[in-house]
Design a protein that fits this description.
Layout (H helix, E strand, L loop, with lengths): L2 H12 L2 E2 L7 E5 L4 H4 L2 H9 L4 E7 L10 H20 L4 E8 L8 H12 L4 E5 L6 H14 L5 E5 L3 H4 L10 E4 L2 H11 L3 H4 L20 E6 L8
Parallel strand pairs: 1-7, 2-3, 2-5, 3-4, 5-6
Antiparallel strand pairs: 6-8, 7-8
Helix pairs in contact: 3-8, 4-8, 5-6
Length: 236
């Protein structure tokens, strides 16, 4: 992250509103394996530690991450990495993973399927976390928009997480102040350990890794930041 952009985001962090997720069963919407940690790792850990049920709705298997990889081989590897990462994060098989197997990079073409799946699982999960609709990746944004459609006219609470936005957006793009979810040191340590399970994203033969040290700067922050959909007047 360039220094001028970092300074602007750190100022937005300083202005963020302290927040904790509701103690409620939770549906976490994940576009690709690794996003469960990059966007929501601390939130998932806290919900599990609080005794809440957590379902991760995995929209794709991330098979398009590398041009040189055979799609099904990479998809299988990334599914295993995601399962291992969630076990490491939570200390056991306490997170249900529902895999939709939709095409990586094309979630916008499957919006109705996403909405139906989210709506179905949100019937028993009154709190939903989704990627922000301006998170600078087509799949992240499509999943955020599907979440809005799925929970509209319901009592489900929806928050948005950010990852690529830190590197490609500006604080001025935010529709509302950030919510600051402070993470205890033990949770931050569990997040870092779980991230190491995503070996394919940290190194890949002959290609630059998806998650290089610069991209992973937000993992080192002492808090996670969210946006409350109820405060997003534009519904973006």
């Amino acid at each position: 992250m360039p220094d001028p952009l970092r300074r602007r985001w750190l100022a937005a962090h300083e202005a963020a509103v302290p927040w904790s997720p509701p103690q409620a069963d939770t549906l976490v919407l994940v576009p690709h394996p690794d996003d469960e940690l990059l966007l929501f790792g601390g939130l998932i850990a806290r919900q599990i530690d609080s005794g809440c049920e957590v379902t991760v709705l995995a929209a794709t298997d991330g098979e398009a991450a590398y041009a040189s990889a055979e799609a099904q081989t990479l998809a299988s590897l990334r599914r295993r990495e995601q399962s291992e990462a969630l076990r490491t994060l939570t200390g056991g098989p306490s997170v249900e993973i529902v895999r939709l197997g939709l095409p990586d990079g094309a979630l916008a073409e499957h919006a109705d399927e996403l909405v139906d799946a989210i709506r179905h699982h949100a019937q028993t999960k009154p709190f939903v976390a989704a990627p922000w609709t301006m998170d600078h990746h087509c799949d992240h944004e499509a999943l955020g928009h599907a979440a809005i459609r799925a929970v509209s006219n319901t009592d489900v609470a929806l928050v948005f997480g950010l990852f690529w936005a830190w590197h490609h957006r500006f604080p001025e793009d935010l529709p509302a102040p950030l919510l600051k979810f402070a993470l205890p040191p033990a949770v931050r340590s569990r997040k870092r350990a779980a991230l190491c399970c995503h070996h394919s994203q940290l190194q890949w033969p002959g290609e630059d890794p998806i998650l290089n040290p610069a991209a992973l700067e937000p993992i080192r922050w002492p808090a996670e930041y969210y946006l409350d959909h109820e405060l997003d007047g534009c519904g973006r």
